[in-house]
Write a structure and sequence with these properties.
elongated; Mor_transcription_activator; Mor transcription activator domain protein; Homeodomain-like_sf; Arc Repressor Mutant, subunit A; mainly alpha; c-mor_Regulatory_Protein
Length: about 140
């Protein structure tokens, strides 16, 4: 077992058994008893699961289980949840690289609201990252 799982090993089985029973209670009934922030987290998770092609019922159940698991392991703590700006910037930069055709810098600049030099810098950075992903360094 890895270190991350060791942190929760003492009560993971009992929590898992409870989470497995969540399907027996309708999601709206469960959410009505939850604090507002936990219910909102459940809604965000369900929305993303629906976007990922899960049915509404399936998404509601999975979102409830995920939110409950997070509440169990992280509840009551002051936890900083980053905005995700760095992740979204990395995803945007990857999209720019994938859309780059060699002659569409102006189009990419307009589409993403960046200057041409910024687009060129992103392409150069992404080229290095893509090369590292697909061509391992022989000297490491």
């Amino acid at each position: 077992m890895n270190t991350q799982n060791d942190l929760f090993a003492h009560d993971h089985d009992s929590v898992s058994q409870l989470l497995d029973q969540m399907g027996q209670i309708p999601t709206p009934e469960l959410k009505a008893k939850w604090p507002k922030s936990l219910a909102e987290l459940c809604d965000v998770l369900a929305h993303e699961l629906i976007r990922q092609k899960h049915t509404k019922d399936e998404a509601g159940l999975l979102a409830g289980k995920l939110a409950a698991a997070l509440a169990h392991y992280m509840g009551g703590r002051a936890v900083y949840l980053p905005t995700g700006d760095t992740l979204f910037q990395a995803l945007r930069n990857n999209a720019i690289y994938n859309e780059w055709k060699g002659n569409n810098i102006d189009d990419l600049s307009r589409k993403y609201g960046l200057s041409n030099p910024q687009i060129y810098a992103i392409i150069a950075e992404q080229r290095v990252l893509h090369r590292k992903r697909h061509q391992p360094d022989m000297f490491e």
